[in-house]
Amino acid sequence: xxxxxxxxxxxxxxxxxxxxxxxxxxxxxxxxxxxxxxxxxxxxxxxxxxxxxxxxxxxxxxxxxxxxxxxxxxxxxxxxxxxxxxxxxxxxxxxxxxxxxxxxxxxxxxxxxxxxxxxxxxxxxxxxxxxxxxxxxxxxxxxxxxxxxxxxxxxxxxxxxxxxxxxxxxxxxxxxxxxxxxxxxxxx
Amino acid sequence: xxxxxxxxxxxxxxxxxxxxxxxxxxxxxxxxxxxxxxxxxxxxxxxxxxxxxxxxxxxxxxxxxxxxxxxxxxxxxxxxxxxxxxxxxxxxxxxxxxxxxxxxxxxxxxxxxxxxxxxxxxxxxxxxxxxxxxxxxxxxxxxxxxxxxxxxxxxxxxxxxxxxxxxxxxxxxxxxxxxxxxxxxxxxxxxxx
Lengths: 188, 193
Prior knowledge:
- The complex is a heterodimer.
- Chain A has helices at about 20-25, 65-90, 90-110, 135-150, 155-170, 170-175, and strands at about 10-15, 25-30, 35-40, 45-55, 60-65, 115-120, 125.
- By secondary structure, chain A is of the alpha+beta class.
- The N and C termini of chain A lie far apart (about 70 Å).
- The relative contact order of chain A is 0.13.
- Chain B folds into 3 domains: about 1-45, no CATH class; about 45-110, Herpes Virus-1, CATH 3.30.40; about 115-190.
- Chain B is built from 4 helices and 7 strands.
- Chain B has helices spanning about 95-105, 115-130, 135-150, 165-190, and strands at about 20-25, 30-35, 70, 80, 85, 90, 110-115.
- A two-stranded antiparallel ribbon of chain B has the order 1-2.
- In chain B, strand 1 (about 20-25) and strand 2 (about 30-35) form a beta hairpin.
- The interface between A and B is large, with 54 and 43 residues.
């Protein structure tokens, strides 16, 4: 009997990356459930799951990063080294130069890089499987109507008004105004 | 519960207006934020449960002096407002929630799974393809076979996954074991003849 598919894939398992050793050996993926997003962290032999229910998602932030440019520079250096060697030993190094050239091409074809953060009432989670802007936009286009169907629509004017209200009620504006005080005096 | 403003995910700087590919004034990161109505939803404070006032009124299983508000969908015990835990439209007592998480009975609480099918497959493939360690297949092949049979019915990944990995692992493991058996047989034959 065929099992009914509960999840649809949004992203493949991708290298998670990060500064820790744990991040180096783990992968992240994103799946779409009927009422939630499922974020998977895997080391290939086990999986950890985080569910983000559409009714709980407060904000989705997409931050542009310089990852693509950094990779371009790194790969270009390797390409130049391989290219320089290919003059002396044309047979072997040419393959390396072509390989790095291909990587640079792929890196640019994938488009600008980004980091996506999803916020709920209790956490801010980085979606590590979304590292490219184009893919992030595609994912957003797919889940936006689902979130709207669960939470309802928010008119842009109303949203901006309420964001300002939140900003003011949190005292953020006042804190900013007194941020230069050397004594950090309490706000009255 | 107080609501927090829209913030930069990198530096935590609060925004007065929704940024749309603008640089954060504090950290300089260019970002876009989409807001959903849940941001403005005030969460109701948790309830403590009413005290039983009348004789014979049903009370909470865990707090006999508190009035029951619902039966647990896991065990059927009556629970008070404090013990009434709502999960995806279903109501559970704390004990059932805990048990559901540990035993994996409530799927939406499951947050970890071991992928035995992948382990079996890797045990069957990895030593064989790394030609240097081919001799370890004498251990890894039976181990792969054992894992595949032992965990055949164990829950696999929450997403997708057929039993194809188990099948491949079993086939490869059987081939490797058979190869070892034939090899040992012929070695014995040549030694004793």
